[in-house]
UniProtKB/TrEMBL annotation:
Natural source organism: Hypsibius exemplaris (Freshwater tardigrade)
SUPFAM superfamilies the record matches: Fibronectin type III (SSF49265)
Fibronectin type-III domain sequence ranges: 29-131
Cleaved signal peptide residues: 1-26
Protein name: Fibronectin type-III domain-containing protein
Gene3D superfamilies: Immunoglobulins
Alphabetic keyword roster: Signal
Coiled coil: none
Cross-referenced InterPro entries: FN3_dom (IPR003961), FN3_sf (IPR036116), Ig-like_fold (IPR013783)
């Protein structure tokens, strides 16, 4: 089945369900991003959302974006289904910046209802421990 047909079918389903059950919520802002358990090469992340993007009991996914604070290139991990994630492969004694963004479908991108900068958590900075 082509992507266009799947997208059209998904949109049609959402519109029909919205008519039947009322307004379909967009993604809510992810907030309270915390970095804990920082070691020389990993760190744990947790975050919350007041009312996560849930549509007919289907939860959203998240994207975690990370970069070295002195760098300009962001790397991301997507399709995270719980409000927690462990960053691994970090360099010792290095400053990092991290942010989280929600996605309400399995193919995050510019057309995603959550793909807006105001939906992203404020960036949080942390430094890994020295070896």
């Amino acid at each position: 089945m082509s992507a266009a047909i799947v997208q059209w079918a998904s949109l049609t389903t959402v519109l029909l369900l919205a008519i039947q059950y009322g307004t379909v919520r967009g993604c809510d802002v992810v907030k309270d991003l915390k970095v804990t358990d920082i070691t020389a090469n990993k760190a744990s992340l947790t975050w919350t959302a007041d009312a996560p993007c849930i549509f007919l009991d289907v939860a959203l996914m998240y994207e975690v974006d990370l970069r070295q604070t002195k760098g300009k290139i962001w790397t991301n991990s997507s399709a995270i289904v719980k409000p927690e994630f462990t960053l691994t492969g970090l360099l010792p004694n290095e400053a990092y910046t991290v942010s989280v963004m929600p996605h309400c479908d399995s193919h995050p991108g510019p057309t995603d209802s959550c793909y807006r900068s105001e939906q992203r958590t404020p960036v949080v900075s942390f430094t890994t421990k020295a070896k």
